[in-house]
Structures are given as C-alpha cells and as structure tokens.
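Table S7 (text form). Paired inputs.
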Amino acid sequence: MGEPAGIGPEVAVAAFNALGGRVGNRELLLVGTPEVFASCGKVPESSVLATKAVAKRVPAKPDGANAAATIEAIALAVDKAIGGEAGGLVTAPINKAVLMQTGFRFPGHTDYLAHLTSTPHAVMMLASEAIRVVPLTVHVPLAVVPRLITLHAIIDTAEVVFAALRRDFGIAAPRLAVAGLNPHAGEGGELGHEENDVIRPAIAELKRRGHAVEGPLPSDTMFHEEARARYDAALCMYHDQALIPIKTLSFWEGVNVTLGIPIVRTSPDHGTAFEIAGRGIADPRSMIAAVKLAAKMADARAR
C-alpha cells in the first residue's frame, strides 16, 4: 500500500489491473486497507490482503494516524514471503517523515526490511533494462560520504552484489564496475586520495577472490552506452552518483531492488508524489516494472 495519501495505492491498483491480477504464473495480492485501494480503482475483494490496522486515504494529506497500517502492510507482506506463501513483495513509496513522527526508527524501507529479515547488510540496487547501479552510501550528507568509504564497506557490498547478480539475475559470470569518488577518479592522487588509499585496495582484494571488477572509474565516462556494455552493475560511491544515470536513462522503468535479504523485494523508483495524488495522472510504469522484475527474480530463485 505504501503511504495512503500518496500515489502508491493508485499505481498499485493501476499495475494490478494492467497485469490482469497476475504476472506469469503468479497471482498478485494487494496488501493494506481495502478501502484505500477501492478509492483508487476497482479490484476484486479476494485480491486484497487486509491489515488489522485501518488507514484512511485523503490524497495529498499525510496523516500520522495511518502509520500503523502502513507499517503493518510491510511486515505482513514480509511474513508471507519469509513463510513461502509469496514469491516476493513490491512496496509502494512511504513517507518516512510521517512514520518517524510516530516512532518509526528506520530511515527507509531497506533498513526496515533488513530488521524484519535479520539481515546484517542489505544493499540497495536500482535496476532497469539499460543499467544496474548500487550506491555504496545512501541517505547521508555528501560531506559525510568520504569517511564512510572503507575497504570493508566496498568489499562487503560488492560481495552482496555479485551473489545477487548470480542468484536473482541469472548472470553466471557477473562483471562489476566501481566508480571513483573524486573527479577523474582522483587523477592519480592529485584530486583526492580515496581512490589510492581505499578503493583500489578493495578492488584488488575482490580480484584476488576471483571476481571480475573494473575500476576505480571516472564517473563522468562510465555510464555511456559503450561503457555500460562492459559491466553488469556499477558500484557507486554516493547516492546521486548512482541515481542520476538510471533516472536519466530509465526514469519510468527504473526499479529499486533490495539485495542481501532472504526474500525478493522491489519497489518503483519514485516517491509519494503528493502534488499529483488523487488527480488520476500518476504513471504506473515504474510500479509495473517493479512487479515484473520481482516475479522474474522469484522465478530465478525457484530454479
């Protein structure tokens, strides 16, 4: 369901109907308050898994009273996936500020899912047909990024990415490109030291472990078409370094994927969009892409 006042329920219902309630051999279920979904379009009552907590939808007007149902919907879907009753879950956008005002202590979906699945290191990937990117650091100020770039952070994140590319994307011999932090990947130390001090040693260790890794690469030249043909995913050092390329190349088809957790989870690569909620103009393409990718990943894990 996501944030009831945003476009999440709208694009969930639109995707459900566009796909005819199924994707491949898999039945789709909407999880949340039935009345919230009903206000966004017609769906079969049997296709809604209702939460005990109830949310009320007033488009563009988020309400802390809806937090319990929003959080419960996520937890309920996770339980179904962990128990094997569902192949995976697709989450609609939440409003983190509203949830945190009610005591929710997680900065986003990824952290909450890691908590629910007892996962020590969940990783966020943004994926489309054109590109897959992973930000090493996510929702932190840019000034904090350099001290979060450590040998272990790069190696541990890369290992999660390699495992997911094999298991979830069916790539037998995955290739990873690693971006530098500084302009021109540090220009040999003239424009920054992180590449020489941290990123190169991490890449060397990953290569020693038998992985195909390239980098550190200047981020201004690693995302054009010819460069992307040389790798299956790009590990970037900070949020915008990763998200600008995919949102430029695949704004409506980009999908947020959580790697490293024991269940399949995807979500559309957009927010709650309160400014257009309830106006009937929300574009469901990213949600449809998220549902299709979740099913594809679930099928890959089942093989």
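Next pair, protein 2 of 2.
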Amino acid sequence: MLMRRLFTLLAAVVMAAVPLAGQAQAKKDSLVLAMALEPPGLDPTAGAASAIAEVVLYNVFETLTKIGSDGSVKPLLAERWDISPDLKTVTFKLRKDVKFQNGEPFNSQAVKYSFERAGSEKSTNKDKRLFASMDFIGTPDPYTVVIGMKTVEPDLLFLLGQATAIIVEPKSSENNATQPVGTGPYRLENWAKGSSVTLAKWPGYRDAAAIKLNRVTFRFISDPAAQVAALLAGDVDVFPRVTAARSLEQIKADGRFQVIVGGTRAKTILAINNKKPPLNDVRVRRAIAAAIDRKAVIEGAGDGFGAPIGSHYVPGALGYIDTTGINPFNIEKSKALLKEAGVKLPLELSLKLPPPGYARQGGEVIAAQLAKVGIVAKIENVEWAQWLDAVYKQRNYDLTIISHVEPFDLVNFAKPDYYWGYDNPAFNKLYEQINNAPTTAERSKLLGEAQKMIANDAVAAYLYQPQFLTVANKKVKGIGKDMPIFDNDLSLMYWQ
C-alpha cells in the first residue's frame, strides 16, 4: 500500500511537471538583443545614425528590395522589376497582400509619396541626393511604380533596400520618429528612453505565422565591460557588433555561446574638417595621415580585427585597389610636410570622439601618435546626440573617428556641404562618369581613379575595414554573419 501511494505521488509530480516544462519551452518566443548605441529616433529617413536602422529596418519598416547578409538583393515589397535598356528606368511590380500597421493600404501612391518626401527640399534624409535624382515617379496602377532616373545609378536596387528608402504611410509619416508605422512584422510596443526599445509581433502582418519571435527587446549598453558582463550574466541573448575581443577566450570557453566574426563594407576613418585652417591645406592632412600607424590603430581600436585601408573603399568591393601606399606611416615625412606647410608647432586640434569603443580606444592611440610630430589632439568624449549635432550637422570640429557603414557612399565626396567639407570639381566630374559608365569594366577602372584621388587629397586619414563580433546564445538561430548594411533582421531569428 505504501509503495502504491509513493508511486501515485511520484506520478502526480511528474505529470504536474510536464505542463510546466511545456510552458517553459513555449516562452522561448522572446529575445533580448543588445546594441552599443541608442537611436536618437526611430525614423531612418530623418537622421544619419545607423542605430536607427539596426532597430527598425525590415522589422517595423520595409523597402522595395531587401539586402541579404551576403550582399545580394531580393524582392520585398516589390515582387519583381524590369530595367530599361538605357538603365535609367525601373518598373516595379508591388505585392498586393500588404497593408500598413494602422490599417491603411500599401500601394504605388505610398511609394511615390515616400520617395518624393525623401527627395524634397525639406528632406533631412541622408540619401536625399539619390531621391532628388529621380526624374519622375509614375504610378500607372495601384501596384506598379515606374522610376525614371536623371542619370544612371548602377546600385539603385541595392540602395532601395537601405533604411533611407523605407516606404512610409503618408498620414503617419511625420510621427515616425516616436510612433513608427510601417508594413513590417513588428510594431513598437515600448521605448524606455536611455534603456531599451521593445518590439512586438504584429498579428496583421501578411505572413505572421512565419515570424517565430513574439517580442524582442533592444537593450542599449555602451560600456565594453558592461557588454561582456551582460552576456555572461545571461541578460542578453544576442549582441551584434559587441566590444568583446579582449574577453573572447573566456566567452569561447563558455559552452552557452556562439561567436560569429562578420565581414563588413564599413570604413573606419579619422575624419578631417577640410574647411578649417590649417586643415584646408592638403599638406597638413597628408602629414596627419603619415603620422598614423594603421596596424597599431587596428590593435588598439579594433583589438586586431580589421584590415588597413588607404582610401574610402574596402577589399571585396567592385574596382577596389590597394591605396595604402599613397599615405604610408612615415613620421619623418609627416614632420617635413608640416614644416613645408609653415605650421607652427605645437598644433592644437580638437579630437571629438563618439561613444563606440573603437572611437574612444582608437582616439587614445591616434592622439599619442600625432603627439610624436607635434600635433596635440585634445580629446573630447561626446555623446552620440552631441556628435550628430556638433560634428555631423554644424561641422564644429577638427578631427573625429567614425565608421561609415554604407557600402556605396563615395557619393558623399561629391557633396560640398557634407561634414568633412571636401569640395573638388574634378571628383564630382569623375563620380558622374562612374555612374554613367557603359560597362562594369569601365566603371571598375573609374572607381580605382576615384580611390586614388581622395587618397591623394587626404580628405581623411583612412584607417581600417573593421570586422565585427557577434556573441549570442548558441540556441539562437538565423543570425546573419556578414554585414553589408547594419540591420538586425528579426524575421530570420528563432530559438532552436
């Protein structure tokens, strides 16, 4: 009798545990993903911060095309497209099963509105030039859009998959910075300023059943030590672009984690204000470049993860040439150039550094290197909002360190009002030739010439192509390896 009672009790305990285990398993539909920087807003058409796209691109907002982690371009809101023989006109056929999260229809008028808004006089879109170069946007029917370009844009399909090309809902577009309304699988649930953003799965999404995660919280952790601590404590499930190289062996030894080393098209540079004397003298800019040992910067800023670059272009991109020999590390040459330019030493320059670890750590290394040639780089650590305002918008700086993450951004050297203030008619003409090159071979050749021109002009001191680490719980699947653009596509992620 006693044995029967014990058996019955044990069976009851086991049966009670079964639903609990099932409930625990069912709860694996949420995720905590961490980022180093908090976005200043949630509208990627209104600001330059890549952190905006890292939260909302492909999650809340969608684009006509979608960029894969391998750099390929696939249909998203556009089902297919046709390109005219002269390469200036693209006809997009749109999906018919899409609606916005406020119930409004997605159609060709929404696309036309989005692109005209992006290219308008009042636009603050960082790719405004692209949309302003659209000669016409035709809408022959609700699900067809015809875009005619003033000049050939060979990378148009790729560019229309970036965050600056999101399709917005006309009635809600002005509030997207705080109340984003898109067509994506997630919508904003909560934004705890200074701490986190939470996205919740949108039941009205056209393929909601395929979305495995019901809720994702983006936590913002800028301090490198705190990033690693949060991972080890299990407070974070996925941390793309984490500053964890110095703790890599400890993380690899912990069986809970997977470590992904991803390639990028990013360029980490020491940006120079070309408009401010004496930095408007190319000899001074070349002297700054010659004073910098790129390999030491890679070790100090990127913990050894990176490849030296000599121009604003990276290995693997069309037409890449090695320009690291144009302004090589040479302290004596740096001193001679400063003397030739008549610079009185010591030369004091501001070095404004945004929060990312690569900038703060790299700034210390570069300041020490510049000191050896008589340049005193006065470090000012600024928050991201301050950097965007003082450096990017007002151009109130001498030097700064930043990673430019867009793959195709040579166009910025053809913008005289861009934050580094480079204004060279010869480059502008060359860039126009690149866009209108009749063949890939000709375009590749011209891209090589562009790289040499901006290297010789020392618009910036080009440092390295970074490699980024992603550390994640090994049971999380669907994490992209390489990063041609900065996004966190939640629709691909799930728990094993």
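The CA atoms of residues 211 and 491 lie 6 Å apart.
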